[in-house]
Amino acid sequence: MRHITSALLLSGSLLSGSALAECQNTGNFQQWLNSFKHQATASGIPANLVNNALHNIQYDPSVIELDRSQNTVSQTFLQYAANKANSYRLTNGQRKMREDRPLFQRIERQFGVPAPVLTAYWALESDFGNVTGNVQTLRALATLAYDCRRGSFFHNELMHALRLIQRGDIKVPEMMGAWAGELGQLQFIPSSYNKHAVDYDGDGRRDLIHSRADALASAASLLRQYGWQSRQPWLVEVKVPVQMNWALARLGKKLPVAQWAKQGVTDVSGRPLRTSGNAALLLPMGRNGPAFLAYPNFDVMLRWNKSTVYSTSAAYLASRYAGAGQVRYGNAPIQVLSVAQVKQLQSKLRARGLRVTKIDGIIGEETRRAVRLVQQQMRLPADGYPDLTFFQKL
């Protein structure tokens, strides 16, 4: 089950949980569709293409139901990573990299993105191209474009879908994907498809559904555009000491690796750190849980999907493909709050005047920032992760 439409996060358009409130559609779908057809034709898309593509398109209430009920990741990193980096994905991902080694090598030479990273996204987004979705894309996009909640965004995506047909990249019957319009083996929304897709198998069209060469190279193209640095790390597991300046451990605080070493951070076996450059110390479950140095390439992965849990799990899976071992559980048992307790925590933080826009039970970066501020006020270790002790004090 998809935890979130990652392609929407690709474009930075997914609204916050507070914006998920119901709204009421009061217009007429067919009238709206006729108006859209005129707009599409006026934009330069041939009228016969528009009419043929949107012929008999109907409003789909099941898509609206999915849109209203979507959830972000409520699992901890260890729970989510164990599910996603399972033995099936590890075994099959390694096999895919061996079978397609020449393709991956060619992509890395051109775009700088290594096989483990591309394979991790390939595994998570579509089970290596096996599960790309069975929803009619044009019907889903038209429904969401008409809908009152995010009509402007999906209006643009529907236009891009028609332009993909106009370019000859994809035919109408092939336009099947996820409920929010994501297409292909790497689940690109139409605007990202138009902007970043490449024809890598040389057949004259950019086919992200059937061509793994096109799909993988297009993912690499997107990551390079987002700032991927060739031959640089993305996420490296480390071991943290029992005590240090925990307030430094946040994604927005990159320090030279040598400074992390001075704080007592070591590699997972306790030896001195061997990497260089600047990195943030990422503690997805606080000071007692797993620890990672997050390099600038991890910021690029967060642009693919803004969920820290998803992106950390994708980066961890990529590291496993690159030869890293199974993640450590950390230095001590972790007191995990329930979803209901996190919602209560968020309400209390908001009542203190702190910025918490979503009461959703998810410990995201905004909640972590608020927690860190209160931890500092309470003279607690300010690692930004709310454990049971903090919850009870609050």
TrEMBL record:
Residues 340-394 form the Peptidoglycan binding-like domain. Keywords: Signal. The keyword Signal applies. Residues 28-318 form the Transglycosylase SLT domain. One of its GO terms (molecular function) is peptidoglycan lytic transglycosylase activity. NCBIfam families: MltB_2. This is Lytic murein transglycosylase. It comes from Leucothrix arctica. The lineage of its organism: Bacteria, Pseudomonadati, Pseudomonadota, Gammaproteobacteria, Thiotrichales.
